[in-house]
Write a structure and sequence with these properties.
It is a single chain. By secondary structure, the chain is mainly α. It has helices at 3-11, 19-26, 36-51, 64-77, 88-100, 120-137, 140-143, 151-164, 183-198, 205-217, 238-250, 257-272, 279-292, 299-315, 331-341. It folds into 2 domains: 38-204 and 320-353, no CATH class; 218-315. The protein has 15 helices and no strands. The model is unreliable at 1-29 (pLDDT under 50).
């Protein structure tokens, strides 16, 4: 059964009832990629996101571009599209909200500054990723503008904004201008550019080359990723190391010596089970890195991913179904957790082998 057939199957009743059986027909591995507990947790999490989507289509009460982008990705990853599936109306409303937040310059923002309810370039990256993945997943979003402009045009302009905002060092910073750089912003832009490129949108080779140089130079001797290029200390955090591992994957640098050092460092963090105050962010990228880098070493997926999954399942609020300990009211944590738990479903283009 291919991905399109699966989407059609899941449309009538939501994907949760079908995932373990259908996915088991596709591929088997030495560990359980999908468990019953995982599927149930995802269903509750997606419901939580749906309950916390407002009439405007936005999710959450602050940083709405970022959280709506991530929630939209989570619904897409569960098999819903703007016209099919349990969360069809949620996806469509999220897309409309994102298009309304896309300025003529290409910047995807709530028209508010950081600290004043705005998401900054974090949100721009997540918003662009959502729009690009919607294009790659749903043919109908390319045929139906859903608003006053097409999603393809919005993605193309957002890509140009990201390119123009790249610092000469190769990284990105909190605002849409080339005046600084740090790792947590950089990963959002790189993943969004990769998703856009996969849909056929042109991405500057210069942008890619500068980014490759940035991530390599940001790798410490122990394989961890520093917060910002040039930062002292010689050791990076779990969160930034997970993000950096994804950047290596998005740039196709799977087999570089720096990428191997980075993944070894990430596995040490995962095995230690550290809680650093940025758990949602760390798990979001650690789970993806384990998936993307499994070709380098299968144990990243078969041993690393189950540990990330276990941490997520143990931290879900059993009453509400959300991941509400993220200091953002649950919107960020719940969307991140649902995304990571749905990686093995392989429905999003970025989650395919």
């Amino acid at each position: 059964m291919n991905r399109r057939q699966f989407l059609a199957l899941g449309a009538s009743a939501g994907c949760a009832a079908y995932l373990p059986e259908v996915y088991g027909q596709e591929k088997t591995t030495s560990f359980s990629e999908v468990t019953d507990e995982q599927v149930k947790a995802v269903g509750k999490g997606l419901d939580w996101l749906a309950r916390n989507q407002g009439r405007s289509g936005a999710v959450g009460t602050t940083c709405q571009v970022a959280f709506t982008g991530l929630a939209g990705l989570a619904w897409l990853a569960g098999g819903s599209t703007p016209t099919r599936g349990k969360y069809a109306s949620n996806v469509k409303n999220a897309l409309r909200f994102m298009l309304r937040c896309t300025a003529k310059s290409g910047y995807i923002n709530e028209a508010a500054g950081r600290g004043l309810g705005g998401s900054g370039m974090h949100g721009h990256g997540y918003g662009l990723l959502f729009l690009a993945e919607a294009m790659g997943t749903c043919t109908e979003v390319q045929e139906d503008a859903l608003a006053d402009e097409s999603i393809k045009d919005a993605v193309a302009r957002a890509v140009k904004l990201t390119e123009k905002s790249q610092d000469p060092s190769g990284g990105w910073y909190y605002e849409p201008n080339p005046g600084g750089h740090e790792g947590s912003i950089t990963v959002t832009q790189v993943e969004a550019l990769r998703a856009a490129r996969n849909t056929g949108i042109a991405v500057s080779k210069t942008t890619i080359d500068k980014g490759c140089s940035y991530i390599k130079k940001s790798t410490c001797a122990d394989g961890t990723i520093m917060y910002s290029l040039g930062q002292g200390g010689g050791r990076g955090s779990y969160a930034l190391t997970a993000a950096g591992a994804c950047v290596y994957a998005m740039y196709g640098l799977y087999d570089s010596k720096e990428a191997k050092l980075c993944m070894d460092a990430l596995m040490r963090f995962i095995k230690q089970g550290q809680s650093n105050g940025f758990d949602s962010y760390s798990h979001l990228y650690a789970g993806q890195a384990c998936f993307y880098m499994k070709g380098q070493n299968e144990k990243f997926w078969t041993e690393g991913y189950p540990m990330v999954r276990k941490a997520l399942l143990s931290s879900q609020d059993k009453g509400s179904g959300g991941w509400i300990q993220d200091s953002y009211g649950g919107a960020f944590g719940t969307a991140c957790a649902c995304l990571v738990l749905q990686i093995p479903f392989r429905l999003l283009p970025i989650f395919q082998d």
